[in-house]
Amino acid sequence: MKGKNSKELNELENSYHKMTRSEKAAKKASNAKRKRVFLIVASIALAVCLLLGLGGFLLYNHYMENRTVQANITIAGIPVQGMTRKEVSEAISEAFLLSHRGKQMVIKIGQETVTLTADVTNVHLDADALAKAAVNLTTKYPQQEAFPFAEYVRMDEEKVMPLLQAVTEKLQSTLVQSSYEVTGTAPEKFDVVDETCNQQITIVLGTPGISVKPERIYEAILSAYAEGNFNFEFAFPVDQPEKLNLEAIFSEKCVAPVNAVMNPETFEISDESLGYGFDMDALSLALEEAQPGEKLVFDFIWLEPKDTKESLTNALFVDTLYEHNRRLECNQKQKLAYCL
To answer: Are residues 248 and 315 in the same domain?
Structure first.
């Protein structure tokens, strides 16, 4: 009896496992079917989206290609109002090529001159980008105006930049201020002109500071090409050294002469005194004519006063009270009567 029950229990377990496997297989098949349906639907939806996107892109591209320039502008001398993007691109490309073909660019930079031939610059115009900008321009101009297009001019940067860098390196300089030095020993007495002057002033003129960036010159060349200017001078800032204050130096290092002065009430005249130092006028003139970095050496000299006691005394009683000039013209008959 016990063996019979064990056999029936095994049969029931086997039957249960068969049913479970069957249900699992059915469920798995159902899931696979749903997945296939989802993939098919997703693929169709993606294809529809791609078609719609492509269609929209084609429509947008068609719209953009057929848009016309609304602004009343000229580019490279050509009126482009009413032109499509393609028409603008073709027209300005041809005009730019005709006006720039074979032209060399000459740039004066300080004391240097740079000449860029056409095969070096390989200058050309990004006509497509420029035409797009013209079409997108919304500014309303009451009168026809030239559209600036320097940013759309292109050059061979790998060839041009090394040439500009070489020039700027020659021009670069550091600002150095002017300096001076007084050497020697000042005389103890100022009443003997024959005494040797043993002092001198040495002045070294400063040099200007120059800092030129080749990128700025590069941009200026692009602008010149856009303007059709093939010969121009590039201006750059120069830091000049401060001028020496000769009056302050004289006051510190020299002794000014003292003029004799007459008392207007007593007519007494004071004594004059010599000065000692450099000739202000001569040194000022030399500084104006000197070059940056030049060295000037001036000996100190005795400086005589303008008015001395002797000169004022001699001029004290010399005065012109009255002066009269009359011109007589005599003819031949009147000469004896009036001219003798």
So the answer is: yes
Same domain, 153 and 254: no
Q: What is the pLDDT of residues 10-45, one digit of tens each?
A: 665 666 555 565 666 666 666 677 777 777 877 787
Our count of domains for the chain comes to 2
How is 21-54 classified by DSSP, letter by letter? HHHHHHHHHHHHHHHHHHHHHHHHHHHHHHHHHH
Q: What tokens does 193 get?
A: 């002109």
Pairing verdict, β 78-79 and 73-75: antiparallel
Q: What is the pTM of this model?
A: 0.60
Domain that holds residue 279: 174-206+241-340
> Do 110 and 201 share a domain, yes or no?
no
Residue 46 in domain: no
Q: Which residues contact residue 332 at a Cβ distance below 8 angstroms, ignoring those fewer than 6 apart?
A: none
pLDDT, tens digit (0-9, with 9 covering 90-100), for 228-268: 999 999 999 999 999 999 999 999 999 899 999 988 888 88
128-143 pLDDT, tens digit each:
999 999 888 877 777 7
